[in-house]
Specification:
About 25% of the residues lie in helices and about 0% in strands. The protein is an all-alpha fold. The protein has two domains: about 50 residues, no CATH class; about 35 residues, no CATH class. It is rod-shaped.
């Protein structure tokens, strides 16, 4: 009787093991929208074979920017009262509250 039980146990074990899939392939689909930095991506789901990653130099208002490629994570956006000669300004702007004179009067632009 013990022999029959052993044979049955061996047969059940063989049957169960034969139904197990060995080396089952990973069923995770790799894509550009899986929330994982994989493939040849340079960021999560961007760069490489995926669309370019947002940057401060892509000419697109993205990534919490307050202007195209400025503000948010990028350098501050240029303004007429930032104390820097930039944009199309002909001189460095000065805030009226500091001088008591409107910036347009300081630089001969008139109103």
């Amino acid at each position: 009787m013990k022999t029959i039980v052993k044979v049955v146990l061996v047969m059940v074990t063989v049957v169960l093991l034969s139904h197990c899939e060995k080396d089952e392939p990973n069923h995770i689909t790799i894509s550009c929208n899986d929330g994982i930095k994989n493939q040849d991506e340079t960021g999560i789901d961007c760069g490489g074979t995926c669309p370019d990653c947002p940057s401060c130099f892509d000419g697109i208002l993205n990534q919490q920017e307050t202007g195209i490629d400025c503000g948010g994570e990028c350098d501050p956006c240029q303004t007429c009262d930032d104390g820097i000669q930039n944009q199309d300004e002909t001189g460095v702007t000065v805030e009226a509250s500091v001088t008591g004179v409107l910036p347009s009067r300081l630089f001969g632009r008139g109103l």
